Amino acid sequence: MDWKTLQTVLGGVNKHSTSIGKIWLTVLFIFRIMILVVAAERVWGDEQDDFVCNTLQPGCRNVCYDHFFPISHIRLWALQLIFVSTPALLVAMHVAYTKHEKKRKLRNGEKINIEDLKNEKIHIRGPLWWTYTSSIFFRVVFEAVFMYVFYYMYDGFQMPRLVKCEAWPCPNTVDCFVSRPTEKTTFTIFMLAVSGICMILNLAELCYLVIKICMKDPRKTT
Amino acid sequence: MGDWSFLGDFLEKVHKHSTVVGKVWLTVLFIFRMLVLGTAAESSWGDEQSDFMCDTQQPGCENVCYDKAFPISHVRFWVLQIIFVSTPSLVYMGHAMHTVRMEEKRKMKEAEIEAREMKNGGDKYYQQKSSVAEKADLSGWDESGGQILLRGSLLNTYVYSILIRTAMEVAFIVGQYVLYGIFLETLYICQRAPCPHPVNCYVSRPTEKNVFIVFMLAVAVLSLFLSLAELYHLGWKKAKERCSRSYNASPSTAPSRLESAPQAERAQMYTPPPDFNQCLSTPNSKFISPFSNKMASQQNTANFATERVHGQEDAAGEGPFIKSSYVESPEAASECAAPAFPENYFNEKRRFSKASRASSKARSDDLSV
Predict the structure, then answer these.
(1) Best mutation site among A19, A28, A32, A34 for testing chain B: the one with the most B CBs within 10 Å?
(2) Which fold has domain A19-215?
(3) How far apart are CA B247 and CA B141, in angstroms?
(4) Out of A33, A43, A52, whose CB is closest to B63?
(5) Probe site for chain A from B6, B39, B93, B199 (most A CB atoms < 10 A)
(6) How close is the nearest chain B Cα to the Cα of A182, in Å?
(7) Is the pLDDT of residue B358 over 90?
(8) Is residue B99 part of a domain?
């Protein structure tokens, strides 16, 4: 999976984030995307090949694997990371739109320095504040939804060593053995912990933004 | 092969703001750990489960025996080790970037003050500029070099990051020993349901794996030593400067007269003298009395100006502080090496003192600057 594109896009967003946003981005890249690419994909690499069932019945193994792993952890995490990163694109689009508007004003003859425009740090105020805050809100929602989906689909966060399968065409209840359950449990808990940390960071950022705007408003009205 | 570029990019930035030992540590991390892991170790462990053979026909027995033998594969363990050991450096980098940003803001503020005061009239300008400059000194920014100096809160963050890094390193080395011991055995005897009885299981490529295990263990121990060396060096520097500061503060007869003018500045600046020992050993009182205080303090001011610039260049070639350097405290050095001494006397002494090399008085045996 090519995560470089995501890195390029999110790198641009990094410039206009708060400090907490930058920390969140770092945690995302190093503790989630990198772990996924470097370690987790290897662990889940042979999940179907080494899914062994105590039966000679052809097709039983396939069906049982499909029954217990409707969507692999790796794919779910990849989806989670994509969904969680997407709201930042909203912010990037808004910033791009703001800059485009300023360029348009320049073209129409208003005096704006081009150099300043390029290097300008866009402050999180006004409509951008709303875009940014709603992006963080959606991030939190997506994280929570995916964590729940994981919990619901796999009955908790532990990978079982043995699963008992009764799906057709298995003739009777068949014992199936999952490959590397302990290692998978370790990484599932690790990714869960990092998701939790990311959620806490997002909530902290949300609080920070709300407090910042509340602190500004009284000063504005006085 | 896994893609380490995400971490690599971040660590490149840390590289710029580290001491020399820190850079060596990072190089060891990149080359001997990440690269070796990504290229060699991954392929060696590639078939670890497919070629893990158990002497049984019982379906599922191999799976459970492999899982019992290797709760977490060596490769994944090393990946986690590298990530956890690098994380404190990222925290330090965050602080360094924050310092850079604060410095940029300070410069903008200074520029504003300058513009404002130039309009209104000069008096307040110098006061404000000097107070802003003092803040810069304390915050750890070098005007002439344009680099971050390792001192104050930044130095503390750096030291804590190294401490945590050391702790993580030790934890992972101990963890590896607890999980696997040092060497992998060829034969693993497994007794776990659904295996009907104790079953012989054979590990794939044990010798090759042992070579890599020993190699990675050795590199981890080397990194640990580098971290400890860095800590020792930073601690030694801090202790030296603290001793010299207490020496400077203690009252004495002739030397204290020299200190009067720059004393206030020195107290505010957190700077170590270049060579504490020289200060102690030189019997200053004998040589200072023939010279007037005024001349000495004038020379001090001149020395300060030159040495502040040259101190950075000098430090570039020495010790652990290539990019991150201590600013030399020329007054502390010059009180031990008063400017108008006969050349011969100071031939030996000056070699130890970095500051005196950059004294404004040209001497024949001075290094050209």
Answers:
(1) A34
(2) de novo design (two linked rop proteins) (1.20.1440)
(3) 26
(4) A52
(5) B6
(6) 5
(7) no
(8) yes
Q: Residue A59 carries which DSSP code?
A: T
Please enumerate in sequence order all residues whose Cβ is within 8 A of that of A187, keeping only pairs 6 or more positions apart, or say none: A35, A39, A40, A43, B76
Residue A25 amino acid letter = L
Nearest to B217 by CA among B256, B254, B184, B253: B184
Phi and psi of A124, rounded to 5°? -85, 90
> What confidence score (pLDDT) does residue B323 get?
41
Range of the domain at B109: 21-117+162-240
Note whether residue B44 is domain-resident: yes
Residue B41 located in a structural domain:
yes
Does the pLDDT at position B1 exceed 70?
no
Question: Looking at the partner chain, which of A19, A38, A49 has a beta carbon nearest the beta carbon of B3?
Answer: A38
**ipTM of the complex in this document:** 0.81
Helix (H, G, I), strand (E, B) or coil at B349: helix
- Number of independent structural domains in chain B: 1
**pLDDT interval class at A218 (50, 70, 90):** low
Q: How far apart are CA A219 and CA A73, in angstroms?
A: 49
- The pLDDT assigned to B334 comes to 42
- What does each C-alpha distance from A125 to A11, A210, B230 come to in angstroms? 21, 11, 44
Cβ-contact B64, B52 below 8 angstroms:
no
Q: Within a domain: residue B140?
A: no
Give the closest residue to A27 by CA, choosing from A114, A99, A85, A69: A85
**What does the block give as tokens for B309?**
């610039």
Q: What 3-state class would DSSP assign to B175?
A: helix
Cα B141–chain centre separation: 16
